[in-house]
Amino acid sequence: MRSTPLHPVARLPEEWSASLAARGERSFTAKQVFQWIHRRGVLDPAAMTNLPARLREHLAAEGLGEVLTPERVHRSEDGTRKLLLRLRDGATIETVLLPSVSGPGSHAQLDADAAAADDEDDDAAAEADAAPRVRVTQCISTQVGCAMGCGFCASGVAGLKRHLGAEEIAGQVLLGRAMLEEGEELRNVVYMGMGEPLHNYEATARSLRLLTHPEGINLSTRRVTVSTSGLVPEIARLGADFGGQIALAISLHAADDETRSALMPINRKHPLDELLAALRAYPLPRRRRITIEYTLVAGQNDDPAEARRLAKLLRGLPVKINLIPMNPIEASSLGPPAQERVAAFQEVLTQAGYSCFVRRRRGDDVSAACGQLVLLGAKPKVRRALG
Ligand code: SAH
Ligand code: SF4
After folding, report:
1. Strand runs (DSSP E) across the chain, as ranges?
2. 326 lines ligand 2 (CB under 6 A)
3. pLDDT of residue 130
4. Which of 119, 134, 277, 297 has the fewest CB atoms within 10 Å, i.e. is most exposed?
5. What is the domain partition of the chain in residue ranges?
6. pTM for this one?
7. Comparing C-alpha atoms, which of 194, 193, 192, 189 is closest to residue 208?
8. What are the CA-CA distances from residue 150 to residues 54, 55, 116, 159, 266 (Å)?
9. What angle do CA 249, 250, 252 make, to 5 degrees?
10. Any idea which architecture 68-366 has in CATH?
């Protein structure tokens, strides 16, 4: 049970129904309130013009209002926008908007948005007649910092400051949607920003329900991807709670326990055999695949022999593999392998029959790469750039 009352932005329509019915409000007001917040993105009760004044006052008294404030927007040359957001307690997080890159070879430039890219083909024919839209993928954070301690990750080096509430997770998308530009459409959401979503399971699951609710933003479940470093019990829980409908991305980064434990401390708790068993048990719908993220770190996990082990490890699983050359961070001397080494690693996996792409981090000129976020002094160079 939660000890603190649920923030109004985190409430689902049925929860509004219960609380508003108890106040003697008419039954349809619950849907109206939810729609104001999640469909229209209006968080100021005073602006909810079709609600009675006493109800608007009640909502204000309940604390309904903005949950995060955009502090800065950094635009990269490739159209990527990184939003620095301030939370009510003063902490800052980031979210990134990644417009789709059109043209040949565009796949090679995507990373966070790549998790959902496969789906695009399914829809292309159906939407061929529609006006051209720029599809935007939003990358969102679930924690301030992260407790998982991966050595190549700025959030991991920073450590966990606190979990985000569901209102702060969904709030990033409300804000991202409001900041879309002419011709853009919010298409995919990836939980690949700061934090480990499954370590903050309750709020993550609630935010998934909020974002996919038909009366709200109404994102399709298959266009929402949760990325995890491999919290085995919570992978099972996510699969059971959402019937496997939420797209899953696994940060694998190694194919043997020794290498993986050195990069990702979580592997000591949930080693590869456990993780692979959880992936096999995930109730994935037919024709869908799990995304395997593999951050290539020079001298750590980039040996062709490791690629061969990876090919063997994943045999029989419906996966697509994204290789991500590590983005250097100030707090670590680790770095990406040379390009030829990346290509050789990819070649082993392609030869073994896997769908395997190299995902370049986008928006690097403003350090907008997801999962590698600037906070808490972990990346002082970028902090200067922000100031
Ligand atoms: N905690 C979750 C989701 C956030 S991290 C997870 O680990 O999956 C999102 C992705 O960014 C992960 O695959 C992570 O390994 C990757 N990442 C983190 N720091 C990185 C860096 N410096 N360079 C490249 N990828 C990085
Ligand atoms: Fe946390 Fe993911 Fe970074 Fe690891 S890679 S420290 S799990 S955010």
Report:
1. 68-75, 81-87, 92-99, 134-139, 143-144, 162-163, 184-191, 224-228, 247-251, 290-296, 319-325, 356-358
2. no
3. 61
4. 277
5. 21-61, 68-366
6. 0.91
7. 189
8. 50, 47, 24, 10, 8
9. 150
10. Alpha-Beta Barrel (3.20)
Cα-Cα-Cα-Cα torsion 340, 316, 326, 373, nearest 10 degrees, comes to 160
Identify whether the C-beta of residue 296 lies closer than 8 Å to the C-beta of residue 323. Answer: yes
CA distance 221 to 239: 12
Q: What is the mean pLDDT of each run of 10 residues along the chain (387 residues)?
A: 80 96 93 98 97 96 95 90 95 94 43 47 52 89 97 93 98 97 95 97 98 98 97 98 98 98 98 98 97 98 98 98 94 95 98 94 52 36 32
Mutate which of 267, 293, 321, 357 for ligand 1 pocket (most atoms within 8 A of beta carbon): 293
Distance CA(31)–CA(14), nearest Å, equals 8
Cβ-based neighbour number of residue 274 at 10 Å: 15
Tokens of 97: 């908007």
Q: Best substitution site from 155, 161, 201, 231 to test ligand 2's pocket, by max atoms within 8 Å of Cβ?
A: 155
pLDDT digits (tens, 9 = 90+) for 120-139: 445 554 555 566 689 999 99
Beta bridge pairs of residue 227: 249
* Tokens 């404030």 -> residue: 69
The rounded distance, in Å, linking the Cα atoms of 383 and 387 is 6
Q: Dihedrals φ, ψ of 292, to 5°?
A: -100, 120
What b/e sequence results for 53-91 when a residue is b if at least 16 CB atoms lie within 10 Å of its CB, and e otherwise? eebbebbeeeebeebbeeeeebebebbbbbbbbebeeeb
Q: How far is the CA of 141 from the centre of ligand 2 (A)?
A: 11
Q: 250 alpha carbon to ligand 1 midpoint, in Å?
A: 10
pLDDT of residue 323: 97
**Among the atoms of ligand 2, which is closest to the Cα of residue 154?**
3
Q: What whole-number distance in Å separates Cα of residue 211 and Cα of residue 222?
A: 12
Backbone torsions φ then ψ of 189, nearest 5 degrees: -125, 130
